[in-house]
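[job 0412] stage=fold_complex status=start
inputs:
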Amino acid sequence: MGNDTPRLVAKPPPNIELNTEIRNLDNEMHIHIESDADIVVAREQGRAIGRSIGFSSTDLTIIATAISEIARNILVFAKSGEIILGTADQGDRRCITIIAEDKGPGIRDVSLAMRDGFSTGRGLGLGLPGTRRLMDEFQLISSPGKGTTVTMKKWITRNG
Amino acid sequence: MEVPILKQGGYLIATIQAALSDADLIRLQDALVEQVGKFRSKGVIIDVTALDVMDSFATRTLRSIAHMIKLRGAETVICGIQPEVAFAMVQLGLTLEGISTTLDLEEGLALLNQRMLKRGGVHGK
Amino acid sequence: MAKKDEARFSEVELEQGTEESIGELLRQLVAHLRQNRTQLRQEWARRITQAKLLTAMSQDEIFAEATTIYDNYVEALESGTFEALQGYARNLSERIIPRGVETHEVIGIVLLLRDVLARSLFAKYQHDFSLLNRILDAYEPAANRIANTVAVGFVQERERTIRQQQEAIRELSTPVLQVRERLLILPIIGVIDPQRARQLTEQLLRGIRTNRAKVVVIDITGVAAMDSNVANHIVQTVEASRLLGATVIVTGLSPEIAQTLVTIGVDLTKMNTVGDLQGGIEEAEKLLGYKVLILGETSTTIQTT
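[job 0412] stage=fold_complex status=done
writing structure:
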């Protein structure tokens, strides 16, 4: 009863290359992740930043959930790391950028980690395919011994 | 932050607050399992109305709680999942399959009562 | 080698010379535009009317807007900053879009202004071709940027308006209907793009909470095309509704669509499906007539008084 049955999941878009510069962030905020309480801080900050650029309450929850997932990965696999939050503009669009960085063991097989078709709990248990579905842009860079960086963005069009 | 657990007749009602850390959730699991045994409760309602994020950890832990409580002969109902949270959960692919979920506490109690009637056991009043 | 250095040196000199002069040239330009403000604005307004642009506005209105745009234009040329112009462009667009002004008109008037100003520059500097050239060199990039700013500002504003209108239409066309107490019906009709799909789900979930619905009937008879994305969306909607304590009945599943869903990988045994909407409503009423709703198992029902 506890096991997830394979459920229908829309084919996720390919690992979308970030087409906007990452480090040109406004409102940049760093949150050090070392305990589960830090995860809560990170997602509340994410919520606050998201709210300040006008995301709907549903999107705010989605943002907070995505942050929670990747922040917890840091804790579980790397013991500590950083969450970097920020915003950026592009014409009449704005985005929230979320970066999770750690110097942990790294992921040997990135494509396996991103394998989808099953609910969270498969694909190495990192919850990455699901997290990717929540965001508009998603990039995973990792290799054994070199740590992991996850970068995600969610866009909103200025709606007056 | 400790999650308050209320005893109401044959049921236990745990009301979760917003900023729930992983450790809080584990503590809740231990507390509920202990109290179900201590009071011989027949049902547990976990009210997540104030929970603003349900991620994979929270989902796994809630399922684990329900499982352990069932081993002690009690039913678990989760009430109060917010629309935005439900939306994010299904997008993420999280499921609470196997656990009854209701809109709110009132519905949760009603559901447990009906189950108890069916079982012929004690129901909370 | 020496010659090369020399050449480079004189190039640098020339560049530096030009650098310093650009500011000076723009100052001359701005002074000219300020001195001739009256005639140039009038000329511009005249040509706007002649080209049959901004027909939705009266002469006075055209002149008033022309004045403000002109002043902002000169301001942007002088300061080299465009924030004020951007703000004005948005503001202008917000006002004229409801009047029915179209994109080609806005681009048209901006290009006309460029032309009016360029011609006046020709007239003024016709005796000094080299100076005219240098002034145009200074004028061109700035004028381009200004034209761009205004046009893009207008287009963005128009797109925003269109999006809002689409949103409103979507909202109106995806009603979540309460037909009985605690029973909601969501008829899904037409094409479901991701945005609409999401809006449907959000509306339904909010509706479940507001109406304290215990049963939801989702009718897909009118769905234009069933593919894995749409199917996936429906499955997600069903699952999310269950999390809010509602039982979902999916109706309007033709045998063909059912086959498609199964092929895609949807587990229909986990979904409560009924042939048509009427049957679905009857099923829902039956469910509501009983007090016990056991989710996920075969429905064993107990009738209460």
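[job 0412] summary: Chain B has one domain: 5-119.
[job 0412] exit 0
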